[in-house]
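Contributing: when you submit paired examples, paste them exactly as shown. First protein:
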Amino acid sequence: MESMIRDIKLAPSGHDKIAWVKNFMPVLRSIDEEYSKTKPFAGKKVVITMHLEAKTAYLALVFKNAGAEVIATGSNPLSTQDDVVAALVEDGVTVYSWYNCTNEEYDMFIDKALDCNPDMIIDDGGDLVARIHNERPELIIGGSEETTTGVIRLKALAEQGKLKFPMIAANDAYCKYLFDNRYGTGQSTWDGIMRTTNLVIAGKTVVIAGYGWCGKGGAMRAKGLGANVVITEVDPIKAIEAVFDGFRVMPMEEAAKIGDIFLTLTGCDNVINEKHFALMKDGAMMANSGHFDVEINKVDLLKNSVSHRPVRKNIEEYVQKDGRKLYLLAEGRLVNLAAGDGHPAEIMDLSFGVQFFSALHILNHHQEMENKVYLMPEEINTKIAQIKLKALGVELDELTEEQKAYLAKA
């Protein structure tokens, strides 16, 4: 199979990026060292649809070294790094992706990847699973899903009895969401916003839509940067948690009047729309860290604007009928990847350990698994944490036999 990428000559800087992140990903290095010898995925085709940058490239190479034939495609038109995919191709991975592809090209790349008839998939957002179920009848062993949005889509399929193969919700593993969704999203989102705007966060009112684990991370980092943080929520329990964490909670219609920066992390659509745009201050900025570019209603925003133009890389200005200027970052796509480098390597090390072991579990146990969404076995979570702690030089206490006996009492 022949890859479709922008320019193979970009590979040298891609190799440098991959080599850099490997230094800070001890879990994947440990996995690579062990399973490159035993090659459990020998003879298997694995399709990876993810944000194709250095850290995901390293995951793809770990699967390849473990024996798999790896085919990779991007999960977002703006997150593929052309030098990184060129390096992957030089290292023997088939890639169909380039930066800023059209929607038609994006769909074509997924189809190209599925033409290989994969045995397993690693998905990010659910587009790959959706394509298989809606248009591609091929049966696969199973796979894993990286994101909250993708897991929501998988569970909907399972509840309708339409899921055709077992999937592990990698996103719901402790070693994923406690770190990736919170610390990873929190840091990388504000990296993307600050890099793009070159503006101070301190003193601004930041409105965070959604107080799930990603929202918690975004709010925590905004607070640390000196922002006045407001949370909007639909879940009463999450709203109480936000209040107890020291944040103001109010409806978006109230928050729209006071916000300087709006950040959506809900996994839902139409979170900020026409009625909110009408209330926003002149100069308000909007960004999204949910998987799809549907949380900020771009159709409404354009419809109510008298002019629209790019004013800086990854910033579009929408002038409203009354003269107010509203700014949208990264086309409303994932601001941490479309306008930044994504999560820190140390964080993705944990997440990709979850992805690898999820795939390995499917490989070894798919025959006894039903067509439903599974959580990763707890012992794998523990194994990943142990590898990471060892790499960090952190030691733990151990229960004595007497303590174990005490805890085991009825």
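Second protein:
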Amino acid sequence: TLPSRYYLDPDIHAQEIRTIFRRSWLYAGHVMDLPEEGSYLTEDLAGQPIFIVRSKDGEIRAFFNVCQHRGHILLSGRGQLKGLIVCPYHAWCYGLDGSLLTARLTANVSDFDTADFSLKPIQLAVVAGLIFVNFDPEATPVNGDLPEFEASILDHLPEMPRYAARYRFEFDIAANWKVVVDNFSEGYH
């Protein structure tokens, strides 16, 4: 077991968030969670609100779940959009590709260009039907371990991309992440 400060010190936790969780590929969902255009899910990963959506072109995309106007959360939970993401605060409208389509009361604002206010994308990779995100803008699945991971999964579970959740539950654990990993690992010895 690590010394207790590694589980309790907020500075160590902040360093772990910065150097591990915001630079690693994090599981966020499964492709079957997004069966059709406009399907979306939201998550809070490494302290960052995100959403993942299936766009009109069929692509799955991830964005920070924050309006570019006043920082309001755009979506919650899981659901189905009808082609637009509308901020509940001032009704800025975004396309499923993250582009700002309309922004109320900006028609007379000089030099206002909607292209400057698109949603901020997050790196995304689909591996054997599993959706992973990475907050590091330089991250690419090709130079990581994801291709090998995919082959390993598909060797044992070739139908994984077509699996669908029959039941889902979520719970918060009031513990440092390392305690959860330590306890999970206990089953191996």
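If you have annotations for the second protein, write them as plain sentences, like these:
The chain is about 20% helix and 25% strand.
The longest helix spans residues 10-21.
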